Amino acid sequence: RMETDCNPMELPNNTGFEEDSDYRDFEGTDVKDMRLEAEAVVNDVLFAVSNMFVSKTLPCAEDVAYINVETRERNKYCLELTEAGLRVVAYDFDQTDDRLQTPYHETVYSLLDSLSPAYREVFGNALLQRLEALKKDSQS
């Protein structure tokens, strides 16, 4: 069974525009730019890794972007971000290896959780601190 980070009841209703190719390029419709998505991914977890940035040498497109990440263990990865999720495509920055058949992860959290015990620890501690702060706020 696949883990999901999203409650299906929270998803917006599909308007049907996405299905109709005539509207796909229409201004204001929801065409995802993967570079923007990749930047958001980086900003979300940068605090818990040594280094992370969107690749400037590998091509970004509407449907794909590449993210370089160095874990706190000093391991380097190049990640591919698509609608299918994130996966490791190379064990160095700005590289892709077509022979590498790594699984897709729905979220950057689950991918980094599988790659880096130090990420898991830092992220978990940050979560605990945030919960403690919320607890204090609700008591005051």
Characterise the protein shown here:
- The chain is an alpha+beta fold and 140 residues long.
- The protein has four helices and four strands.
- Strands 1-2-3-4 form a four-stranded antiparallel sheet, with helices on one face.
- The longest helix is centred in the C-terminal third of the chain and has 23 residues.
- The radius of gyration is 18 Å and the shape is elongated.
- GO terms for molecular function: kinase regulator activity; protein kinase A binding.
- This is GSK3-beta interaction protein.
Keywords:
alpha+beta, four-stranded antiparallel beta sheet, 4 helices
**Average pLDDT, all residues:** 83
- Major sheet, described briefly? 4 strands, antiparallel
> What is the alpha-carbon Rg in Å?
18 Å
Strand order of the largest sheet: 1-2-3-4
Can you tell me the overall shape?
A: elongated
Number of strands: 4
Task: Classify the helix fraction into a percent range.
Answer: 25-40%
Report the oligomer. single chain
| Number of distinct helices | 4
**Class from secondary-structure proportions:** alpha+beta
Distance between the termini: 42 Å
Write the element-wise H/E pattern from the N-terminal end onward. HHEEEEHH
Q: Beta fraction of the residues? A: 15-25%
| Low-confidence blocks of residues | 1-31
List the helices and strands and how they pair.
Layout: H1 21-24, H2 34-45, E1 51-54, E2 65-70, E3 76-82, E4 85-90, H3 108-115, H4 117-139
Antiparallel strand pairs: 1-2, 2-3, 3-4
Protein name: GSK3-beta interaction protein
Organism: Aptenodytes patagonicus
Family: Belongs to the GSKIP family.
